């Protein structure tokens, strides 16, 4: 046992020492210059796979980091992108064609695409570690002194991969991921002085959960609803809403604590789950595995869900990158669907300040790279907004890829004084983005079909005007009828108009009557021609 502990300590020390080398190379991640860099992209969703399965089409979410291909705009950057299953060639071509000022062939020659050819429900990083020959091929393709590794989220799997490849991981160390959990977030908010709803620490059993809810109700006698959250839920899919109004007869002052706890425990089976696939039988079992918290549901007639995104550099500096107003859905508006950039001017600067407070506390804990903070904002009678923090994400969230797409396409800058993003031409840029443009009628559309629609209706991003729509999650389209888009404009209204145009066009092009569709031969190619079959 002692030897195992020493070995584990050595592993952690080696990982930390490797990460220290990022101090000398981290700026290459963001700057467009001629410095040499090898970037290894491991888009592994190394999170609880049962929770992940609540997200339809999750097996294609490895595509969300494909914005990283735009880093090939740096003429001396090389990039390795690994996925569970091979990506359709037209998807790769689409991203490379977005690169301004770089010949397609030059960028393609600096891109190595690798796959595990394994569609099983295991994290990608685990699949790579199980394949020594693939691991060796990745190692041979990298120049260790010029390389770093980027991931979706950091766990022991990514740390092991980093050590085996001798390449530093640009992400928070696995032992710090607790600060991105629901209970860890609440602790960071308390330590950094950021307002947040009343709630509990993590508990592991139904009876303790009922007791925590009762204690919360005792502290907040006017409480009407309570949110129950699995400690490692994703995109709001691990949340449930407990309605207290039907059991007001056991409210504080009306009944004993024991009666209140018993009534709450009985009500758990009637909770409204945010995931359509969730049941109390499954949810209660997950509590014993992941833990859960209870939190006061923030009521309000005019309520929004803004967020702030930041970065902690390898030198310990905290930077604010962006703010968004999140677009939420689900039974009670707790599931992330998309976002608008930037957040409303009435509170975006306040979000930045709160984000800095959280970021500095995370930096003190030793965290690195991306963090995001989600809030609830309720408009008060005086027109001011009451803003309370809800949770921290220590990973690349749903707002990461649209913002990085904008940044990498325009090489612009974020202005802290205004909370706006300006292109190199000095134009403020806005966007609306989603991972969840999903309709049954879109099922059956192939990536090539989408490219044809985009080209015919001129929906693509125009590098001259720096406006238009960028598509992602194209692998989800055929099976799930699901697609991601980021519509970029010179105003939020223009961005929304572009977004609505895309939806309208896709609706029209996916109508049930296919008889009017032109054959591919009408475009000059025989029906059997496939440019990717040799």
Structural key phrases:
D-amino Acid Aminotransferase, Chain A, domain 1, 534 residues, Rossmann fold, eleven-stranded antiparallel sheet, single chain, disordered C terminus, 16 helices
Describe this structure in words.
With 534 residues, this protein is of the alpha+beta class. The protein folds into 3 domains: 11-171, Rossmann fold (3-Layer(aba) Sandwich); 198-296, no CATH class; 303-509, D-amino Acid Aminotransferase, Chain A, domain 1 (2-Layer Sandwich), CATH 3.30.470.20. 32% of the residues lie in helices and 22% in strands. The protein is built from 16 helices and 19 strands. The protein has helices at 2-20, 49-52, 89-97, 104-109, 124-129, 132-141, 156-165, 182-192, 206-219, 257-267, 280-290, 348-365, 400-410, 447-456, 477-480, 492-509, and strands at 37-42, 77-83, 111-115, 147-151, 225-230, 239-243, 272-273, 292-296, 303-304, 306-312, 318-329, 335-341, 369-379, 385-393, 413-415, 420-422, 428-438, 468-472, 482-489. Strands 9, 10, 11, 12, 13, 14, 15, 16, 17, 18 and 19 form an 11-stranded antiparallel β-sheet that branches. A hairpin with a 4-residue loop joins strand 15 (413-415) and strand 16. Helix 1 crosses helix 7, helix 8 (182-192) packs across helix 12 (348-365) and helix 9 packs across helix 10. The longest helix is centred in the first third of the chain and has 19 residues, at 2-20. Residues 517-534 have low confidence and may be disordered.
């Amino acid at each position: 046992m002692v030897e195992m502990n020493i070995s584990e300590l050595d592993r952690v020390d080696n990982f930390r020492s490797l990460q220290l080398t990022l101090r000398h190379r981290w700026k290459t991640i963001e700057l467009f210059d001629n410095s040499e860099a090898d970037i290894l992209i491991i888009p592994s969703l190394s999170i609880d796979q049962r929770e992940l399965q609540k997200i339809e089409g999750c097996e294609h979410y490895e595509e969300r980091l494909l914005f990283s291909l735009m880093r090939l705009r740096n003429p001396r950057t090389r990039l390795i992108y690994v996925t569970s299953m091979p990506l359709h060639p037209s998807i790769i071509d689409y991203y490379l064609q977005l690169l301004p000022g770089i010949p397609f062939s030059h960028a393609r020659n600096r891109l190595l695409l690798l796959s595990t050819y394994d569609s099983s429900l295991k994290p990608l990083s685990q699949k790579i570690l199980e394949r020594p020959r693939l691991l060796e091929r990745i190692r041979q393709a990298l120049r260790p002194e010029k390389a770093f590794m980027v991931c979706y989220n950091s766990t022991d799997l990514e740390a092991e991969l980093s050590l085996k490849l001798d390449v530093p991981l640009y992400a928070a160390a696995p032992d710090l991921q607790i600060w991105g959990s629901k209970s860890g977030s609440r602790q960071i908010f308390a330590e950094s002085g950021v307002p947040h709803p009343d709630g509990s620490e993590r508990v592991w059993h139904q009876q303790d959960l009922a007791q925590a809810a009762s204690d919360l109700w005792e502290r907040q006698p006017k409480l009407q609803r309570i949110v129950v959250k699995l400690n490692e839920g994703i995109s709001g899919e691990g949340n449930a809403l407990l309605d207290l109004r039907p059991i007001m007869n056991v409210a504080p002052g009306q009944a004993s604590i024991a009666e209140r706890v018993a009534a709450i425990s009985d009500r758990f089976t009637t909770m409204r789950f945010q995931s359509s696939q969730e049941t109390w039988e499954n949810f209660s079992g997950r509590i014993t595995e992941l833990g859960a918290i209870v939190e006061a549901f923030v009521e309000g007639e005019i309520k929004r869900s803004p967020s702030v995104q930041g970065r902690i550099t390898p030198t310990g500096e905290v930077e604010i990158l962006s703010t968004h107003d999140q677009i939420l859905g689900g039974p009670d508006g707790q599931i992330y669907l998309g976002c608008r950039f930037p957040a409303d001017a009435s509170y975006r600067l306040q979000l930045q300040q709160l984000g800095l407070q959280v970021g500095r506390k995370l930096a003190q804990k030793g965290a690195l790279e991306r963090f995001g903070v989600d809030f609830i904002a309720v408009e008060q009678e005086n027109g001011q907004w009451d803003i309370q923090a809800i949770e921290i994400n220590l990973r690349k969230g749903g707002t990461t890829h649209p913002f990085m797409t904008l940044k990498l396409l325009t090489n612009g800058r974020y202005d802290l004084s205004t909370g706006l993003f300006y292109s190199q031409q000095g134009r403020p840029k806005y966007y609306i983005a989603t991972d969840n443009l999903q309709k049954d009628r879109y099922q059956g559309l192939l990536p090539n079909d989408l490219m044809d629609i985009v080209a015919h209706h001129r929906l693509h991003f125009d590098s001259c005007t720096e406006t238009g729509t960028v598509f992602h999650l194209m692998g989800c389209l055929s099976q799930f009828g699901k697609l991601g888009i980021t519509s970029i404009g010179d105003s939020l209204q223009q961005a929304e108009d572009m977004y609505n145009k895309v939806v309208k066009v896709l609706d029209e092009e996916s109508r049930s009557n296919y008889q009017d569709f032109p054959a591919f031969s009408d475009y000059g190619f025989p029906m059997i021609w496939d440019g990717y079959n040799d």
